[in-house]
Amino acid sequence: MWFIVEDLINGILMGAIYGLTALGLTVIFGVLKVINFAHGSLLMVGMFVAYWAVTLSGLHPYLALILVIPIMFFFGYYLQDIVIKPIFKAEKDVREPITVIIVTTGLWYILDNLTLLIFGPQYRNIQDNPLRGKMLEIGGMFISVPKLWGFSAAILTALAIYWFLQRTRMGRAIRATSLDRDAASLMGIKQYKVYNIAFGIGTAAAGIAGVTLVPFYNVFPSVGVLFDIKGFIIVVLGGLGSISGAILGGMIIGVIESVGPQFMTATWTEGIVYALFLLVLFVKPSGLFGVRYDW
Amino acid sequence: MTRENFQKLSAALLLIVSFGLPLVLRSPTYLHILILLYLYAYLTTSWNLVGGFAGVLPLGHAAFFGIGAYTSTVLFLQYGISPWIGMVLGGIMASIVGVIIGLPTFKMRGAYFALATIAFGEGMRVMVENIDYLGPFNLNGPRGLQIPPLNVGLANLMFVNKEPYYYIILIMLIAVLMLTYTISCSKLGYYLNAGGEEPEAAKALGVNVARCKLIAMAMSSFLTALAGVFYAQLTLFIHPKSVISLDLSFEIAFIALIGGRGSIAGPVLGALLLRPVSDFSRIYFGHILPGLHLIIFGTVLILVMIFQPRGLQEPLTKAYHRLLDRLTENPTEKE
């Protein structure tokens, strides 16, 4: 019986980390109204940046955040500015910017394979990992320490982004643009600058997620693919554009993945996740916390 | 020579060349590359019925490919039913699944639709990977099914040489292109076009957009399943990762998009341009620069989407028409 509680707790911790990976996706979607298919690749890039930051400087993984966050932010900012903005401009009057989705898919392929080309397919792990395999024992249950760190990082990042969006001027501009891009533009908000910053924030969030994953997950070029699809599922579950939805959606998935294998094979739990995803898409596409925006 | 005659002559020449190629090109490797080229051209043209004409972005078509492959293979291995019948049955199964998928998903917005089709595709793959026995049928899970090369011949769609495969897929490709052309000139084609561009206006005019999309989906999934059967008989081994893969779904969509979805020549053009790139970069650069062909795909996709969102067929078709004007007499210009 205690196993279930242990699984539940680990599931919640891992789930929060999943939520963190999906956080960037939901912010980008909420503002730009596009599903960034390259998000998994951005996560992978974040993991590689974190890996190299730690390996080359010997810093504690979480200290490497000082490097990772700005690098990822500017990477995302300029990615949006150079690659995606031209499509937006071309598709200004189209109701559903499908072409942007296609472009982000192309980006996914390019990033994944470029990394494969440059760094090779081998799995990497940081050496002298101060967090590796550490477990905290609470009353007979083993809680994974790196996941505990990840959980805290996830909650802190979510709160930080929430605070940014609610309390700062730029945050308000972002929220305005996500509600009605034309009205915001009429109010003097530079639409494309907001997009760039939102994309930067989303990518930086992916970078933070990368840092949390590096202590206990292998780093290799196609690691993003696993999180990519899970990210979409989480984001739809929680509601596209909702930060709390992303974290909660992540926790639901995390719990299913942790507790599920007690009752069925691990691959069937994967099937359950897909089934749940489809259910949400059919019944309430706006997700648990999403708002019914007609964009 | 009039324009019409010129076009008929070039079509005839193309047919002669394509049918005569195996007599000139003896190497099985090159024939295999051509077979795969035609297969992808066929797949993208079938995809085009939904992705181009109906205006949505289905990214899970590999599921239908797999349904066709598995249906015919299981029936063949366990009951000795000929793959030709397997094609029909697999196609019907895929159609039914396609309509079931289409019913709830066509109501969704573009991005959600894409995600839903991905979920269906991946969900199907997970299912097949986990199920060993579906009732009396042996699916063999992740280990896949292998077809022993006995009883070769036309009846069983199994041949020792590549030539018969080449002709079969060529005929299939021509058939699918003719079907697409017929649809594009028919009422269904116009309804689909209207429904894809401006669904509300179309509905206001009395077009049953949902029904047309479902018809397109049923046709597209049927045709894709036929290709799955062909592939199973070509490679004589299928397993979930090869026939129900996300990569396959994406590759079909990419090629159709780069070539130009919504047009007839587009998908074929895309396949013609991109498949050789894929094959040759894999053959010559595979070990030094792995994944190069995917980088090229991705870059070409982005560039095409930025500069020619209607696909590469647009500038090429324009150039073709200008060429036609120069070479042939145009009755209206004579005055």
User: What percentage of amino acids of chain A are in beta strands?
Assistant: under 5%
Global geometry of chain A: globular
Gyration radius of chain B (Cα, Å) is: 21 Å
Number of strands of chain A: 2
- N-to-C order of helices and strands of chain A: HHHHEEHHHHHHH
Helix/strand order of chain B? HHHHHEEEHHHHEHHHHH
Largest sheet of chain A: 2 strands, antiparallel
Find the structural class of chain A using helix and strand composition.
Answer: mainly alpha
Please report the number of helical segments of chain B. Answer: 14
- Name the chain pair with the biggest interface and residue counts per chain: A-B, 41 and 37 residues
Low-confidence stretches of chain A: none
What is the alpha-carbon Rg of chain A in Å? 19 Å
Q: What does the average pLDDT of chain A come to?
A: 82
Number of helices of chain A: 11
Shape of chain B: globular
Portion in helices of chain B: over 70%
Strand content of chain B: under 5%
Count of DSSP E strands of chain B? Answer: 4
Category from helices, strands and their pairing of chain B = mainly alpha
Largest sheet of chain B: 2 strands, antiparallel
Which properties best describe this structure?
heterodimer; A: 295 residues; mainly alpha; two-stranded antiparallel ribbon; 11 helices; globular; B: 335 residues; two-stranded antiparallel sheet; 14 helices; 4 strands; 2% strand
